[in-house]
C-alpha cells in the first residue's frame, strides 16, 4: 500500500475520451493538481484537452501503443480503453483482451514500478443467485456474455503480467452499473434518459416500452466511481480485485420512476415481454466492504441525485 | 446420460484434418461403423476422405459454418477445430472463442437435441500448486497463457449456450499433454521426436538442447484420448467438464530418455537454462476419476508404447 495520499510522477488514462475517462481526467485535474495527467485515445473527438497532455494512440496496434508508453513514461495507469459493443465480437476481444496485452507488454520496457488499475466490470461474475448477494470479490467468476468474457480475459492477462513482472502492480476494478450524464444509450440509464426526454418532447403521447423492471441492480454514479479508481490507484493492494458499486439495490422500475417524475410524470410505462432477457439475474448488488476497508472510499451520491443531475445537464444542452 | 452405447444419426467432427480429428475419424469409422461421420475443416489438405463425408468450412465465417451445419444436420458434434499458435493472438481468440460461438449459434437453428463435445485443454487450470495434484475438474480455472484464456472463453461460451438452449447438451473435455504420431513440433513430444530423429541422422554429433527436464507432466496417447471423446459423447453428463489424461506423472527427462533409447542412445542431452520457462509449474497431473466413473473409460496405452509407436511410424515414412 502506498503511504502517500497523492500521485507521484505521471498518470496515464487510456480511453480518456470515453465516458469514465472524461470524468476521471476532470477529477484528477481538480483533486490532484500536482499530478501530470496524460491521456490516450483512438481519436481526439469530443475531448476538451486543456487539462491533460494528449497522445492519439490505438491500443490494438502494439507498435503504436509501445511508442506512446515510451514517450509518456507513466508511473500510474488507469486502463479505461475498452468496448462493450457485443455486435462486434472480434472487436470485443481485440480491444478488451489483446489491447490490454499490448498495453502491459509495452510497460515491461520501462524500468520502474508502475501501478496499473484495470477497468473491469461486474459482468465477469455472470449468473448471480439471489443468495449470493451482495456479491463479494471472491465469488466464482463465470461470465454469461462475450463482454463479460472479454473483461475476464483482460483481468487474467493483468494477473499473468502482475505475477511475472516484478515492477507491475496490477489492481482490478469491477464496476457495477454506472450512471451519469453522457452515458451511452446502449446502457440502461443512458437509454432511459434519452428515451424519456424524447417521449416528453414528442407530440404523440406514446408510452415508454420496458422489459422486466422488477430486476434489482446496483447503480453507481460515475463521479463516485472515478474517485474510487483514484483511491484504488493510491491505496489498493496489488493483485487484488475490488468491487465499485453503491452497495444498494434498486429496482429498475424505481429508476424509471425517478426519471419520469423529474422529466414528465404523464409518461406511461408499458411492459413488453419481448424485451425480457433470459439470462438476466433477478438481483445483483455489490459487496463494497473491501474497497471501503482498503482505501477509505465510500459512495456519496444517491441515485435520485444522479438522475436529477443528468436531467439538469441534458436540459442545459438543449 | 444416454442409455445406448453407440451413436444415432449423424456425427460431425470440426477440425477433422487436425491431429486429434484424424485419429477420431479413424476410430469412429472402425469402432462405430453404424455412425454417419461428417467432417469439416478449413482445408482438405492431408485428409484421407474415404471414411467420412467432408465439407470444407471455415469456423471463423458464421454464414459459412451455418450453411454447413444446416446441410449436415448433426446429432453429435466433436468440436476439435482450434489453434494453439500463441504467435497470433487475434487468431487464437477468433478461432477458439468466436469460432465456437459461430458453431453453437449455427446449431440453435436445428430443432433437435444435439450432443456437443468441446475439446478444451488442461491449460485452463493455469498455475497448479504441487499440493493441487492430481488436478480435479473443480479446481479454480486461472489460465496463464493466451491459449488457456482462449480455451476458457470457449468453455464459457459453451456453458452460456448449454444454459440457454434446451436442445444443446454441452460436454467439456480438458485434455492434458497429448502424445502420438503426427503431433505438431510446437508441442513437446512432437518436438522431441523431430529433433531426436534429426540429430540421429546428422553427421555431426550435436547434443539435444533441453529446458527444465525435472518438470512432471501427464502424457496421454491420442488413441486413448479420442476413445475418451467418443465415450464422453455417449455417456457424459451435460454441462460438465472432464479431464482426459493418463493420471500418471512423468518427468520430461524420462520422456526424453524413452525417445533417445529407442532412436539413438548415443545422443547427449544438454540443459540450456535459456529454455527454462518462468511460468511452468513443477508438476501437473490429471485426476481422471470423474471420466472413469461416468463413462467407464480408462487409458490403456503406456508412455513407452506411445514413444515406440511414434518412432516406428516415423521410420516407416522414411
Automatic annotation (TrEMBL), chains A, B:
It holds the Pfam family GDP_Man_Dehyd. Residues 12-307 form the NAD(P)-binding domain. This is NAD(P)-binding domain-containing protein.
Amino acid at each position: 500500500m502506498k503511504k502517500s495520499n497523492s500521485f507521484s510522477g505521471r498518470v496515464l488514462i487510456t480511453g480518456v475520451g470515453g465516458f469514465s475517462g472524461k470524468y476521471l481526467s476532470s477529477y484528477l485535474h481538480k483533486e490532484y493538481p500536482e499530478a501530470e495527467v496524460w491521456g490516450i485515445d483512438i481519436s481526439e473527438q469530443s475531448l476538451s484537452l486543456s487539462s491533460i497532455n494528449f497522445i492519439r494512440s490505438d491500443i490494438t496496434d502494439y507498435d503504436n501503443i509501445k511508442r506512446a508508453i515510451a514517450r509518456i513514461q507513466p508511473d500510474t495507469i488507469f486502463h479505461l480503453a475498452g468496448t462493450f459493443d457485443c455486435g462486434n465480437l472480434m472487436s470485443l476481444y481485440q480491444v478488451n483482451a489483446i489491447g490490454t496485452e499490448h498495453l502491459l507488454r509495452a510497460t515491461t520496457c520501462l524500468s520502474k514500478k508502475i501501478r496499473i488499475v484495470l477497468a473491469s466490470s461486474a459482468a465477469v461474475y455472470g449468473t448471480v443467485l439471489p443468495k449470493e448477494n451482495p456479491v463479494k470479490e471472491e465469488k466464482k467468476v463465470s461470465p454469461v456474455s462475450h463482454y463479460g468474457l472479454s473483461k475476464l480475459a483482460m483481468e487474467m492477462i493483468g494477473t499473468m503480467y502482475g505475477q511475472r513482472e516484478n515492477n507491475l502492480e496490477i489492481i482490478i476494478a469491477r464496476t457495477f452499473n454506472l450512471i451519469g450524464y453522457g452515458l451511452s444509450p446502449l446502457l440502461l440509464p443512458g437509454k432511459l434518459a434519452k428515451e424519456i426526454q424524447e417521449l416528453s418532447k414528442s407530440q404523440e403521447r406514446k408510452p415508454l416500452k420496458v422489459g422486466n423492471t422488477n430486476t434489482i441492480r446496483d447503480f453507481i454514479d460515475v463521479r463516485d466511481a472515478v474517485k474510487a479508481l483514484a483511491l484504488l490507484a493510491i491505496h489498493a493492494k496489488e493483485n487484488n480485485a475490488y468491487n465499485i458499486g453503491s452497495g444498494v439495490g434498486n429496482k429498475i422500475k424505481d429508476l424509471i420512476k425517478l426519471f419520469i417524475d423529474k422529466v414528465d410524470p404523464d409518461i406511461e410505462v408499458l411492459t413488453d415481454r419481448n424485451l425480457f432477457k433470459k439470462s438476466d439475474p433477478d438481483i445483483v448488488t455489490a459487496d463494497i466492504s473491501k474497497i471501503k476497508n482498503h482505501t477509505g472510499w465510500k459512495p456519496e451520491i444517491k441515485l435520485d441525485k444522479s438522475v436529477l443531475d443528468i436531467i439538469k445537464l441534458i436540459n442545459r444542452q438543449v
